[in-house]
Amino acid sequence: MHKNVKMKAGGVDFFYGPRQALKGIDLDICEKHVTAIIGPSGCGKSTFIRLLNRMNELVPNTRLEGRILLDGEDICDRSVDAVEIRRRVGMVFQKPNPFPKSIFENVAYGLTVNGVKDSKTIEKKVVASLMKAALWDEVKDRLHENALKLSGGQQQRLCIARCLAVEPEVILFDEPCASLDPVSTGKIEELILELKKYYTIVIVTHNMQQAARVSDHTAFFLLGELVEVGQTQDIFTAPKQKRTEDYITGRFG
After folding, report:
1. Cα separation of 200 and 32, whole Å?
2. What range does the domain containing 223 cover?
3. Which among 21, 89, 198, 50 has a CA at the least distance from the CA of 80?
């Protein structure tokens, strides 16, 4: 991949206690592209993307070996602030997880946590984030209603807006449509294609059609190993590895 590399995993091994969950992962994540990570359940997809914003270090008794770089800097270095990494590398989870607060407060949350106090600035950023998340038109008259009243698809876009408000550089999506209906899924996919103009995106999905629709590059994980990575079109039409072909054609997984 000759494009600008935004994040890079080099020789990454990861352990939950004695169990090795990832083995020697080398992966370049290109700037302002969508990288999809596919593979059967339990193959290490979610574990891998949680390393990209240091979420896994919140799990006790885990160990990481190797390096993960963001703009060439090792994010796992002790001197690097995990909170700042999580601001720069935002995450949207499988199930929408809005706070039991108003729509406005949900989006403003990260700004206030990051020390933004000026109410005009906060308001501006909340509106801009809801617009970028393609949610503004649906909620502009209900900003002070409880976010939990929104539909599942709207809640997921709200979580995306909350992530955008703190101006991340990379957005990680961990199966963001797993709990959504097809219409909501379509909206999230359209949104991802729009957001990649401004952000670097990594999406974990078990839905291969989704990977084919939204991503530029696809990485296939199996049993904690990165079997193959390449342009999405190549991975789906002419994979180099037999294991990739078997998975894509539905022989297993």
Report:
1. 4
2. 5-248
3. 89
